[in-house]
Amino acid sequence: MKRFINSKSDIVTEALDGFLATTPNDKLARLDGYPHTKVIVRTDWNKSRVALVSGGGSGHEPAHAGFVGEGMLTAAVCGEVFASPSVDAVLSAIVAVSGEAGCLLIVKNYTGDRLNFGLAAERAKALGYKVEVVIVADDISIPGAHQPRGLAGTLFVHKVAGYLAARGALLEDVAQAARDAAACSYSIGLSLETCTVPGNAKDDYLKDNEAELGLGIHGEPGVTKIVFDTAAKLMRMVCDQLEKVVRSDKARYAAIINNLGAVPPLEMGILAHSLSKTALGGHIDIVIGPAHLMTSLDMNGFSVSIMELDAPRKKALLSDVEVSNWPGLREGGTVTISALPDIGSRKKYSFVANETVQAVVLAVCNRLVSAEGELNELDARTGDGDTGTTFGNAARYILSELEEMPFGDGADMCATLSDRLSQNMGGSSGVLMAILFAAASEAFHQKASWPSAIMAGVTRMMNYGGAKLGDRTMLDSLLPALEALLNGKSVSDAANAAREGADATAMMDQARAGRSAYVPSENLRGVTDPGAEAIALVFEEISTIV
Amino acid sequence: MKRFINSKSDIVTEALDGFLATTPNDKLARLDGYPHTKVIVRTDWNKSRVALVSGGGSGHEPAHAGFVGEGMLTAAVCGEVFASPSVDAVLSAIVAVSGEAGCLLIVKNYTGDRLNFGLAAERAKALGYKVEVVIVADDISIPGAHQPRGLAGTLFVHKVAGYLAARGALLEDVAQAARDAAACSYSIGLSLETCTVPGNAKDDYLKDNEAELGLGIHGEPGVTKIVFDTAAKLMRMVCDQLEKVVRSDKARYAAIINNLGAVPPLEMGILAHSLSKTALGGHIDIVIGPAHLMTSLDMNGFSVSIMELDAPRKKALLSDVEVSNWPGLREGGTVTISALPDIGSRKKYSFVANETVQAVVLAVCNRLVSAEGELNELDARTGDGDTGTTFGNAARYILSELEEMPFGDGADMCATLSDRLSQNMGGSSGVLMAILFAAASEAFHQKASWPSAIMAGVTRMMNYGGAKLGDRTMLDSLLPALEALLNGKSVSDAANAAREGADATAMMDQARAGRSAYVPSENLRGVTDPGAEAIALVFEEISTIV
Question: What is the mean pLDDT of chain A?
């Protein structure tokens, strides 16, 4: 299986060092005990208050190292992937951070963790430390389970205990609050695929139409295999289980929406939305996540945890922490909707006379309509054969609105063309033409002539479109023609320049922009670019009038 | 493909509403333009400063909606997945947030985005707004590319421009700083698998030994197919490309380590560690991430972006923002190492005489050694057949140390047994026994008798071990025996109680804890639990002495 690891034996130490070197919380250190002892501690800790130590097997990042810092944990003891840390490692953590105020161990309910943290607690007591232990067993996937597993609800316990410890509460009070928080925390997970344990092949036992409900965080199969369904229905299955533990209609809860590893943020947003639509959603006052909090390696799934709120627990959750992996939380999650602003409905222009401009527009549009087949044919040799239709449709639309065109006002005329072409020409060409005429209109407001206004538009179009002369686009005929006009040459000269430019595109065997950028050279050779050809036809037509 | 979505047409609106309802930043709203106009705006915005608008296709979460807030963006315009938002949507965003100070559009370099944001900018100017546009083209995967793509380096531009805008800088100055930041930002991505575009089957074109380098963020194939390798070597390939743009030996950079979608935090930590070991790492003063910043749906890959630092850009990056998806950053990422505390080396005990205790220990150990085969046989009928060996090994070890045992001091004797058993018995049993004797030692310090001290130990062991009477473990003989002693009965009575308890386990066809918890009932029936049997043998042995 392809995963981003080096050697299996260095996974956890490298990941921890990568974390320590990049976490915005620069008040963290590791104990000098690699590889056996992997303990992350606060460097800004003076032992004057109750120390909180948590941990367990790795593979659940950012838990638990990511939650060390003022307001949450004092130390995290990390085992190898999915393996409990040793008694000595836990004891090292306790000794490193505990003072007179004592230490609370927060332990997820797995046999290995219970035993190793438990023995370390007994050893620490023998050394004279005051130690309390709270076991978190928030999994509700097996009704009446003898030993429910510890899942993401552990974060609630970290936060509640962390709040009290930071404020100098006594060990017994911190421990009691932690036990109470653990006792009213409930979690269940759902996944579409299992996780990949490093060094093992991925066990793809779920079929394409299967998911599983009631997961641990160590790659154990879920309690129930379910039929894959929409995000809303899968979320409802999770919430149906959690609703069973909701104590009363009036009970209020905090929720954790936990990414089990590999779900992209887009989908976590959909799941969060789906949660808000469930009956459980109506009981939730505070949401933490969606975020990676207690992962199970690369599991493509999520879990939801809830904790019943009372005033002290709510206050504890809402308190600020100096822990960069704590994602913050949201109280009362409604979506605020602001009024859509008026972006100007389609502006009405009225007819303003200018016989020459009107004649040019009429002739150009007619020429483009008549050239439709020819241009499509050119385009078909290198592309999808619709250039003629695109120009033709636009021309027909303009022809249908001639009676409302302000031919005599350059700025308004260009603004009209920009509006109409962006709405009716379609595709990139429509937007490019709309940009051209919008910028030309702006130029007219600063007293430009037609050629200089169009040139200003073309410059803006190049700016956004990214093409330039020689890229085998309409620019290859348009730019020479405009330059001729701006240099005082006649329209006929401009038409000749456009024609030369268009013909030259047939010699270009590489397109650098636009629709032909990915067409092989041999297909391009000898074929005139249809956009450049259209421009040449337009200038030839204008030269018969002006 | 199994993904957490509902209908394809609702992906983006649902994900945005899920985001809005859960983000800790509760000063966000969406414009009332669903489904066509998907624009996220600040509600705490008074238009007095330059507005920053960014956006593009969706599928890159948390970009860009997640970066709206004081110090970064003023609005994010979201298209459908991998599709540019419409001109009208962009224009709505500009109009919604722009005042006299004007608006800067930050656009990733994709044709659709350039054109739609570009035309919207022109339209906004026609409506009287001051608008500037900066295009981010930070992809370095195609040397000499005509139009490099916009990737995660866009975040640098958001942050630099956001800093200046928040401090009231003029539009032209914000735009210039944004252009300068874009001009010295460089990115490249690497992935092990492509992403799954909703509604399309996943195109698994990479073989098990392949990866690809030089990715866009829209599922385009990478520029180079490479051979899959360790995290360190893959990271080096990425950094080799970035090192080519490092301007001089003295040039200093900020780096973004971006999760492209589905890489679990554990592996991102390993990648961050690998990056710190490259030559490029020596040029990096500031690290942002690892984090999900600019994803490509569920792509199992990462990208690294760098931006050259000068004093103003560094200051801008380091400034605080009110944007919950901004992950913060780390300056000067070294790993701090604290001394491993002394957890007490193996305590030396010396011989203290007590003939009875010594005789009991000797007899018990000898009995366990002689029972090794019998106990293994019992265990083999329901488990892995090593209970006898586990007890036998422990007994042999204790026998080898009899000369140093403080038999005459209950507290020390129990502490010795706890130490020796945790180090030499192995497995859960060793830890459980160590806990038992550690707690018994503690009890002796409070003047307990042997039976009450052992009972205190057993209670603690049950606490951590999680088993109780009737769970088909050694407790089923141990507890009745201890209770007999504590009720003033003789050792012989206690032995009888232990024997009864052990024999009763053969009738229990369900184990609730310990090694037999997953053994089917039919295999358990008629078989005595070997742990309970060992305890019965021990008490029978003691009754011959005391």
Answer: 93
> Would you call A336 and B28 a contact, using CB atoms and an 8 Å cutoff?
yes
Beta-carbon separation of B464 and A6 below 8 A: no
Residue of B nearest to A442 (CA): B126
What H or E segment, with its residue span, contains residue B452?
A: helix B450-465
Pairing of strands A210-213, A224-227: antiparallel
B122 touches A442 (CB < 8 A): yes
What are the residue numbers of the active site of B? Answer: 218
Q: Are strands B39-42 and B75-81 parallel, antiparallel or unpaired?
A: antiparallel
| Chain B stretch 411-450, residues whose beta carbon is closer than 8 A to a beta carbon of chain A | 415, 418, 422, 428, 431-432, 434-435, 438-439, 441-442
In this prediction, residues B346-372 reach a mean pLDDT of 92
Contact across the interface for B18 and A328, Cβ inside 8 Å = no
| Contact assignment for A431 to B118 by CB distance below 8 Å | yes
Given a cut of 60, is residue A515 above it in pLDDT?
A: no
Q: Which of B59, B302, B337 sits opposite A32 (nearest CB)?
A: B337
Give me chain B's average pLDDT, please: 93
Q: Which of B205, B340, B428, B516 to mutate to test the interface with A (most CBs of A within 10 A)?
A: B340
B144 close to A (CB below 8 A): no
Question: Could you tell me the domains of chain B?
Answer: 8-331 (3.40.50.10440), 355-543 (1.25.40.340)
Q: Tell me how far apart the terminal alpha carbons of chain A are, to the nearest angstrom.
A: 71
Q: With contacts defined as CB-CB under 8 Å, which chain B residues touch A276?
A: 17-18, 21
Catalytic residues of A: 218
Q: What is the ipTM of this complex?
A: 0.92
Nearest CA in chain B to A195: B264
From the list A14, A264, A438, the residue facing B270 with the nearest CB is A14
C-alpha to C-alpha distance for A526 and A103, rounded to whole angstroms: 82
Residue found by looking up tokens 């900020």 in the block: B254
Tokens of B273: 């560690």
Distances (CA, A) of A269 to A257, A261, A278, A302, B323: 10, 15, 15, 12, 17
A266 inside 8 A of chain B by CB: yes
Question: What are the backbone angles phi and psi of residue B185, rounded to the nearest 5°?
Answer: -110, 140
Give bridge partners of residue A224 from the DSSP assignment: A213
Residue in chain A lying closest to B88 (CA) = A343
Rg (CA), chain B: 35
What is the count of residue pairs from A and B with beta carbons less than 8 Å apart?
A: 396
Q: Are A532 and A473 in contact (CB under 8 A)?
A: yes
Find, among B94, B264, B530, the residue nearest to A82 by Cα: B264
Is the C-alpha dihedral spanning B390, B395, B400, B401 positive or negative? positive
pLDDT at B198: 85
Q: pLDDT band for position B71 (50/70/90)?
A: very high
Q: What span, in angstroms and rounded, lies between the C-alpha atoms of A84 and A80?
A: 7
B210-232 confidence digits (pLDDT tens): 999 998 898 888 899 999 999 99
| A397-432 per-position pLDDT tens digit | 999 999 999 999 999 999 999 988 887 777 788 899
Confidence grade of residue B166 (pLDDT, cut at 50, 70, 90): very high
Rg from Cα positions in chain A: 35
Q: Are residues B273 and A341, on separate chains, in Cβ contact within 8 Å?
A: no
CB-neighbour burial class of residue B209 (10 A; exposed 0-12, middle 13-18, buried 19+): exposed
Which pLDDT belongs to residue A516?
Answer: 63
Query: Counting Cβ atoms within 10 Å, is residue B397 exposed (0-12), middle (13-18) or buried (19+)?
Result: middle
Q: Which residues of A touch B297 (CB under 8 A)?
A: 264, 266
A268: contact with B, CB 8 A cutoff: yes
